[in-house]
């Protein structure tokens, strides 16, 4: 069965430093998509970055990059130059491409950026 | 503003009440989703509607009843809920497998 695993319940990072949030996934489908979302205390889920299973290059969006290692089934999020506003919950998600598009999520990592 | 609006933002209800959650998307998407978010658990996919047809029901108890009258609107009708149903309920929409756009959620408390 498809599954997303985030093993870090909480992380701290110093302001202006880089941080890596881990995500591993399990699927037998050759076609899938991987997403990262940010959820601040307000509750809204904010899309950050996307990686398709056939994409050759790692995705980047501003200060966010996705370290995609297909053979290891990992899709870690790297945030560079952390800012206080980056403090939030971060969720890794996978889209299953067989039949209906379903999106499954991990348990999330709570990131706290320290001044 | 994501283009997905959920109302109400907060809801407190007794176990014998009937209430409804509403979701509206202004993005022209063809799929809409209900998720349940409880503390320390992954977001749980409850229902998926594609082109107004329910295509996924993840073994959700019958006290939750979804309705999708058109491609822009999605409801979740609630009746005789249990305290363990207290959670954040998130609505989302997407088009063709692209990223999900989420609403702000309804924080539900069942007393």
What order do the helices and strands of chain A follow?
A: EEEEEEEEEEEE
Distance between the termini of chain A: 41 Å
Largest sheet of chain A: 6 strands, mixed
Number of strands of chain A: 12
Strand content of chain B: over 45%
- The CA-CA distance between the termini of chain B, in Å, is 31 Å
The radius of gyration over CA of chain B amounts to 13 Å
Instruction: State the secondary-structure class of chain B.
Output: mainly beta
Largest sheet of chain B: 7 strands, mixed
> Which stretches of chain A of 5+ consecutive residues score pLDDT under 50?
none
Radius of gyration of chain A: 14 Å
Q: Low-confidence spans of chain B: pLDDT under 50, at least 5 residues?
A: none
Number of strands of chain B: 11
Contiguous helical run count of chain B: 0
**Interface with most residues:** A-B, 24 and 27 residues
**Relative helix content of chain A:** under 10%
The shape of chain B is globular
**What is the N-to-C order of secondary-structure elements of chain B (H for helix, E for strand)?**
EEEEEEEEEEE
Helical fraction of chain B? under 10%
General shape of chain A: globular
Instruction: Specify the number of helices of chain A.
Output: 0
């Amino acid at each position: 069965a498809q599954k997303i695993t985030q093993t870090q319940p909480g992380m701290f990072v110093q302001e202006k430093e880089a941080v890596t949030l881990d995500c591993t996934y399990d699927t037998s489908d050759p076609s899938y998509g991987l997403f990262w979302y940010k959820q601040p205390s307000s509750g809204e889920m904010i899309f950050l970055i996307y990686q398709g299973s056939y994409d050759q290059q790692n995705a980047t969006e501003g200060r966010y990059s996705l370290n995609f290692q297909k053979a290891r089934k990992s899709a870690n999020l790297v945030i560079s130059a952390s800012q206080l506003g980056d403090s939030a919950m971060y969720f890794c998600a996978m889209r299953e491409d067989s039949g209906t598009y379903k999106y499954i999520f991990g348990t999330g990592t709570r990131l706290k950026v320290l001044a | 503003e994501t283009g997905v609006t959920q109302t109400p933002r907060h809801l407190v209800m007794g176990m014998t009440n009937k209430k409804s959650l509403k979701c509206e998307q202004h993005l022209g998407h063809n799929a809409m989703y209900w998720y349940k978010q409880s503390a320390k658990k992954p977001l749980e996919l409850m229902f998926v509607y594609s082109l107004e047809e329910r295509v996924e029901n993840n073994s959700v108890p019958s006290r939750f009843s979804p309705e999708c009258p058109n491609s822009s609107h999605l409801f979740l009708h609630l009746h005789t809920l249990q305290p363990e149903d207290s959670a954040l309920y998130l609505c989302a929409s997407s088009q063709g497998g692209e990223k999900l756009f989420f609403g702000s959620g309804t924080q539900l408390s069942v007393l």
